[in-house]
């Protein structure tokens, strides 16, 4: 069994979509539990685990403390209890379990897939599954609540392209809320939006029709043109 993932990184599909960084698989940073304030940094590369730490002191004597570092290959990391204990103490069970899974070749492909591909995959899930997936992490919460995804779901659910009034409502409330809005409530919102647009157009017409300055200006131009034509005609007759 191979203990690094270099063979995975060479996969043309993985390389094309840049799912994994060629230099970094994952990294973590944390401050050690009290009373210590030491800073720890864990870097996982395609072939090694690198744990670094910096001594943090209240006194102005930090210059005499050099950073520490532990480096292990994937195979060595599996047996390195000291690194396990340090990661567990500073970064917790979840980080240690994550490291052991990476070490065993259990890679977290899903969260690394580009968002545009994730949206296409999520589009085919049931609505309940989309909502549940959005609760698993901050990354999936952003994707599963994105307006672009819910617009596609709305079009697929309603089996038709949305009308312009529906597009306007979506700008106000979002496609997700619009999809779960009852048809009766949606009709009420559309009617209200139509009435508001009608009122705005009526206000524009009213403001124009009651603007005396506009008509006086037009009348002045018309009278000036007539006078000019009369003068030109008179001169021509002479």
Strand content: 5-15%
* Oligomer status: single chain
Question: Strands across the major sheet, in which order?
Answer: 1-2-3-4
| Secondary-structure content class | alpha+beta
What coarse outline follows from CA principal-axis ratios? Answer: elongated
- The number of helical runs is 13
Question: Largest beta sheet, briefly?
Answer: 4 strands, antiparallel
Number of strands: 4
Helix content: 55-70%
Measured on Cα atoms, how large is the radius of gyration? 34 Å
Overall mean pLDDT = 79
The termini sit apart by 113 Å
- What letter string, H or E per element, gives the SSE order? HHEEEEHHHHHHHHHHH
Spans of at least 5 consecutive residues whose pLDDT stays below 50 are 204-216, 218-222, 228-232, 234-238
Number of domains: 2
Domain F-box: 107-153
InterPro entries: F-box-like_dom_sf, F-box_dom
Keywords: Membrane, Transmembrane, Transmembrane helix
Protein name: F-box domain-containing protein
Descriptive overview:
InterPro entries: F-box-like_dom_sf, F-box_dom. This is F-box domain-containing protein. Keywords: Membrane, Transmembrane, Transmembrane helix. This protein has 238 residues and is α+β, with helices and mostly antiparallel strands. It has 2 domains: 6-112, no CATH class; 115-204, Monooxygenase (Up-down Bundle). It has 13 helices and 4 strands. It has helices at residues 6-9, 12-16, 74-79, 81-91, 93-103, 115-122, 127-133, 138-144, 147-158, 164-173, 175-180, 183-209, 212-237; strands at residues 26-31, 39-44, 48-54, 68-73. It has a 4-stranded antiparallel β-sheet.
């Amino acid at each position: 069994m191979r203990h690094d993932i270099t063979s995975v990184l060479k996969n043309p599909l993985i390389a094309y979509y840049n799912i994994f960084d060629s230099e970094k698989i994952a990294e973590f940073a944390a401050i050690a539990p009290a009373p210590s304030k030491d800073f720890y940094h864990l870097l996982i590369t395609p072939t090694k685990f690198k744990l670094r730490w910096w001594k943090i002191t209240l006194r102005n004597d930090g210059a005499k403390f050099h950073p520490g570092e532990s480096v292990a290959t994937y195979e060595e990391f599996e047996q390195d209890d000291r690194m396990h204990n340090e990661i567990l103490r500073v970064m917790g069970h979840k980080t240690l379990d994550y490291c052991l899974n990476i070490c065993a070749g259990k890679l977290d492909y899903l969260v690394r897939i580009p968002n545009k591909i994730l949206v296409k995959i999520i589009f085919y899930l049931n609505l309940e599954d989309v909502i549940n997936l959005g609760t698993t992490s901050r990354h999936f919460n952003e994707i599963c609540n994105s307006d672009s995804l819910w617009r596609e779901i709305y079009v697929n659910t309603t089996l038709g392209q949305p009308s312009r009034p529906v597009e306007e409502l979506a700008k106000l409330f979002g496609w997700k809320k619009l999809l779960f809005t009852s048809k009766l409530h949606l009709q009420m919102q559309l009617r209200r939006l139509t009435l508001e647009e009608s009122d705005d157009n009526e206000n524009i017409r009213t403001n124009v029709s009651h603007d005396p300055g506009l008509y006086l200006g037009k009348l002045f131009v018309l009278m000036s043109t007539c006078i000019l034509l009369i003068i030109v005609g008179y001169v021509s007759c002479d």
